[in-house]
């Protein structure tokens, strides 16, 4: 259906001239923001894909990939960037990295700023619905989504099965004899955190246990703060699933300072398997999502789309789902 939609159709739907529609879709500056929003919204609704030949005339290869991440601080994002960089060097490409600070508007601004400077985009926006985001990004660039929820907006993506990973974490804690399992959640607006919370709740329901959810923001400080809340309770949980490894690290520090034995008093498991978890005291159990490989494989997927010659390839590319692997270490091993 997308192949039959023309730029003229998009212009009519947006109520603008073909020239204005072209400028908006190609990320040019000489168009008002209001017109750009209307054009991109119309293009998204119609599933418009620019013709590959037209794109080739409008843009020459830069051998550079744009990377937009919600943040560039911390070991998780360092590993993502390292994986992308390794994949880029193997393909003879360079990368241009920008942080969106967890803001959809900032991600869109960064993408538009990169239009004309890069051959394709890798976007990680776990706080944004892909259907909404796809209507605002440049349509003349091959695009791969990293993280979030797969299969949305017909965009190629590489996503982690966060629900099944969280379910596996709860089942593991139950197998270790835990019956009061608390969860330090990620940000409420984060789609991946939502899936991990859903997996946790499904796991407790499966085991016939009651949930206890503490707020978090994926930082070690949030994990530390959550533990202070738990320590003030009459009865501590005997199992703790943190929605990411950084919060698990912060929780471990808080428990050790309070003299709580890990895993005898409370077993802990995180999510992601960032390298530092192996060297914590005790080493932290986790769900290995292959953060480095997510970056590398996403770059390889995007590189293949670019070699196919146009953004049209993006519309037909399927999502790749990564199922996390349980990694049991001393923080949760009781048996």
From TrEMBL:
<protein>
    <submittedName>
        <fullName>Transcriptional regulator, LacI family</fullName>
    </submittedName>
</protein>
<keyword id="KW-0805">Transcription regulation</keyword>
<dbReference type="GO" id="GO:0000976">
    <property type="term" value="F:transcription cis-regulatory region binding"/>
</dbReference>
<dbReference type="InterPro" id="IPR028082">
    <property type="entry name" value="Peripla_BP_I"/>
</dbReference>
<feature type="domain" description="HTH lacI-type">
    <location>
        <begin position="5"/>
        <end position="59"/>
    </location>
</feature>
<keyword id="KW-0678">Repressor</keyword>
<dbReference type="InterPro" id="IPR000843">
    <property type="entry name" value="HTH_LacI"/>
</dbReference>
<dbReference type="GO" id="GO:0003700">
    <property type="term" value="F:DNA-binding transcription factor activity"/>
</dbReference>
<dbReference type="Pfam" id="PF00356">
    <property type="entry name" value="LacI"/>
</dbReference>
<keyword id="KW-0804">Transcription</keyword>
<dbReference type="InterPro" id="IPR010982">
    <property type="entry name" value="Lambda_DNA-bd_dom_sf"/>
</dbReference>
<keyword id="KW-0238">DNA-binding</keyword>
<dbReference type="InterPro" id="IPR046335">
    <property type="entry name" value="LacI/GalR-like_sensor"/>
</dbReference>
<dbReference type="Pfam" id="PF13377">
    <property type="entry name" value="Peripla_BP_3"/>
</dbReference>
């Amino acid at each position: 259906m997308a192949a039959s939609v023309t730029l003229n159709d998009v212009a009519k739907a947006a109520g603008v001239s073909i020239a204005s529609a072209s400028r908006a879709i190609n990320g040019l500056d000489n168009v008002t923001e209001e017109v750009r929003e209307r054009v991109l919204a119309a293009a998204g609704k119609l599933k418009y894909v620019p013709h590959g030949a037209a794109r080739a005339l409008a843009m020459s290869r830069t051998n550079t990939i744009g990377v937009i991440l919600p943040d560039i601080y911390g070991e998780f994002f360092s590993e993502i960037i390292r994986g992308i960089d390794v994949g880029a060097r193997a393909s003879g490409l360079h990368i241009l990295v920008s942080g969106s600070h967890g803001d959809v508007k900032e991600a869109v601004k960064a993408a538009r700023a990169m239009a004309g400077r890069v051959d394709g985009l890798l976007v990680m926006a776990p706080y944004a619905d892909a259907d909404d985001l796809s209507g605002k990004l440049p349509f003349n660039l091959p695009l791969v989504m990293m993280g979030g929820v797969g299969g949305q907006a017909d965009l190629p993506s590489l996503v982690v099965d966060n629900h099944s990973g969280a379910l596996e974490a709860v089942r593991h804690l139950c197998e270790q004899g835990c019956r009061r399992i608390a969860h330090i959640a990620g940000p409420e607006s984060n789609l991946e955190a939502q899936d991990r919370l859903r997996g946790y709740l499904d796991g407790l329901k499966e085991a016939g246990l009651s949930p206890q959810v503490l707020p978090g923001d994926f930082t070690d400080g949030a994990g530390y703060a959550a533990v202070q809340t738990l320590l003030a309770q009459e009865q501590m949980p005997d199992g703790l699933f943190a929605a990411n490894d950084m919060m698990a690290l912060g929780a471990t520090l808080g428990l050790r300072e309070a003299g709580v034995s890990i895993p005898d008093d409370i077993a802990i498991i995180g999510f992601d398997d960032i390298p530092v978890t192996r060297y914590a005291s005790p080493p932290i159990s986790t769900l290995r999502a292959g953060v480095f490989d997510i970056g590398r494989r996403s770059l390889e997927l995007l590189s293949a789309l670019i070699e196919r010659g146009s953004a049209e390839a993006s519309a037909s590319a399927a999502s790749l789902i990564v199922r996390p692997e349980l990694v049991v270490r001393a923080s949760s091993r009781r048996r």
